[in-house]
């Protein structure tokens, strides 16, 4: 998929955007499948419940394990982060030196964005590589919620 996309773009940002779009398509279908499979599922109406669903159920289904952390930003009220220390998407990809800034986590960000949008939590989702000791591929998915989601959350309190 990466080779196919790489041949049809001009630049790293364009490649990450395409990976994000492909992830979005996968995310829409994954949401349908997960909701259909889960017999006693309920529609999440709260942001934390939705993020926890992504952090556990979606990650386990898509990547075989739970994400390593779910955190709320201390600086911005509308930002949450899901971190994966050893993302499956980046594990078997060797990035050429000429595109060393490429973050294949954009694919995962697309999946998360599609699931958030599909559950009526519009947001902008981006992927960032944040290496730490022992985990050079650690990827953080940054979820920036739309203003309307925060307003709805305030009404539900």
Q: Keywords for this structure?
A:
alpha+beta; four-stranded antiparallel beta sheet; globular; 4 strands; 157 residues; single chain
Textual characterization of the structure:
- By secondary structure, the protein is an alpha+beta fold.
- It contains 6 helices and 4 strands; from the N terminus they run αααββααββα.
- Strands 1-2-4-3 form a 4-stranded antiparallel β-sheet.
- A hairpin with a 6-residue loop joins β1 (69-72) and β2 (79-84).
- α2 crosses α5 (106-118).
- It is globular and about 50 Å long.
- It starts with a helix and ends with a helix.
- The model has no long low-confidence stretch (mean pLDDT 89).
| Integer average pLDDT | 89
Strand segment count: 4
Strand arrangement across the biggest beta sheet: 1-2-4-3
Task: Please trace the helix and strand order, writing H or E for each element.
Answer: HHHEEHHEEH
Shape estimate = globular
Span of the ends, CA to CA = 43 Å
